[in-house]
Amino acid sequence: MSDIQEHRTPVTLKGLSPDDPHLAPSARNPRLVERVIALTFVVGTLLMLAFGWAYWINALPWKLGATMGGGLFFYGIGLIAWAKYLMPKGPFVEQRHSLANTSEDRDAFAAAIVERGGGVVKRRKLLGGLLGGGLGVFGVVAMFPLVRSLGPLPKSTLFHTDWRTGSFAVDQSGRRIQVGDLAIGSIVTVFPEGTENSDRGQAVDQTVLIRISNQDFTTQKGRETWGPMGYIAYSKLCTHLGCPVGLYEQQLQLL
Q: 138-152: per-residue pLDDT in tens?
């Protein structure tokens, strides 16, 4: 019987020695395959590090997608190649008796699987180390949103704006809004002058200015002076999650 035929002969799990040919990898040149897989793990780890750096500096979305996608791609290629070319090729068979195995049999089978799986990893210490390091980098990078994206607590900053008595209302370009600029039914986003391009201005100061009439407008009793020349203003920030609200239905006068 040739070596190839002998290697393809099914054997049982019991009594299988570490040197059994059925435990040999499928690759003809395991060392070369191991180096190639190691290279994929190294490239994947470098791309994950690049993703962490890009995320930290708030890089463009395509850079985030390219680095993370590339890292996961190379990890996947390495794991698939490891399973296909370096894992024991078998085949293995086990005599099937009663389906109701005893707890001792189940424990022995689980121990055999763990032992042989650990042996495969121990044989490839370089790949195991690179894979472990790559997964460690991935785990650290996955924690970045908790460190960077959440930012500092807003505390009471959302309850105060930069609008003051006498503040000039300007648009996004910094141009002051005059009384005759808006036609009836028009809407524009305004800011206190000097804050239109600041983070705080965009965060809490943006305001929707609507003109619904050319006469003084009273929204309710006690606010007779709140709508001069038909102008009314509302914070553009939704009180739910802070989303900007800028849609206005002119005919129904709904914001």
A: 888 878 777 666 666
